[in-house]
Amino acid sequence: MNSYRVPQLAKKYTDYDMIRQHTEIPSFPDSRARLLQVFVGRTDEKVHDELYALATSLVQLAMDTHDRIDTISGERRELEMRSRQLNVLAGDYFSSRFYQLLAHAGKIEMIGKLSGAVSEVNARKMTLYERMKKLLVSAEEYLRETVQLKMQLFLSFTGMIRDNEASLWNDLLAEFSYCEAIMEELRRMNDEQRFYHSYAFWHIYEYGNDDERKMLRQPEPDTRAWSGMVLKYRIGEFLLDKLRECTHRIQLLLQDEEDQLGLHEINAILEPYLTYLQPSHAAVRED
After folding, report:
1. What is the CA radius of gyration of the chain?
2. Residues 57 and 29 sit within 8 Å (Cβ to Cβ)
3. In the 8-state DSSP scheme, what is residue 46?
4. What is the pLDDT of residues 79-107, one digit of tens each?
5. What residues have CB less than 8 Å from 217, skipping those under 6 apart?
6. What kind and span of H or E run contains 34?
7. Residue 143: Cβ within 10 Å count
8. Predicted confidence (pLDDT) per residue in 162-219, tens digit
9. Contacts of 44 (CB under 8 A, 6+ apart)
């Protein structure tokens, strides 16, 4: 299998001053990309393992970038307008690179599969967003749907995975998608620009009192009040417990299959999460 260098290769398409100056690139789908390269690298398509991981990551970045386009009506400041325009253009650009990469390699069938997966993701998002607009989503439902949305593109490769490894691939993809989702929610809970409709939002809306729910329904919730509720409901601790449980499930999966299948490189994908959970990092996370 090739060494893992997909994030570095992706910088060729993401490291543009204009994009980085006016918008924030979403988190790279590192665990999912690396897992995909591991499993495809064990098939007859191993010569394309890096290509598939890179192309799929660019599609994911395209969708995640488009998700950052706000839908709020009314006037915006010039910087806000420029950021919105760059989110649109950056997402379109990342998507076009995926087509170019796969077409150049003659992988037209995979373009079709990933394009179909994009349609499925968008349909699923619309259903979720409609429920979110009506405030009908529980925190756990939101998290489950987020994980499913993160998995969908990468599931396009399931038919390529070895028969005796397909079940493990699906299980690990679900668990690492869960880990990535939790890490994203840990970042969002203290981000005053992105906490709206986050896991923390839904948890507090579900378990909060009437005054707290009323505050969350405001177009621009008070950020100081928000920070207080995050502490009151111990959202950070709650999410860390979920991350800890997820890493434990991954360790159990590897314990059962690792020696038999020789999937030792997956430990490297798990390691950053285990490091994050170490007590020595607690003070940094609380700042």
Report:
1. 20
2. yes
3. G
4. 455 555 666 666 677 888 899 999 999 99
5. 135
6. helix 30-40
7. 20
8. 999 999 999 999 999 999 999 999 999 988 778 889 999 999 999 999 999 999 998 7
9. none
Q: How far apart are CA 258 and CA 265, in angstroms?
A: 9
Structure tokens at 157: 């490769």
The tokens describing 144, both together, are 């489950």
Nearest residue to 149 via CA among 171, 172, 181: 181
Q: Residue with structure tokens 């699906």?
A: 170
Report the share of the chain in percent with pLDDT over 90: 68
Which 3 state secondary structure label does DSSP give 158?
Answer: helix
pTM equals 0.90
Residue 122 reports pLDDT greater than 90:
yes
> Residue 230: which of 259, 255, 199 has the closest Cα?
199
* Alpha-carbon dihedral sign for residues 1, 60, 249, 195: positive
Kindly state the greatest CA–CA separation across the chain.
60
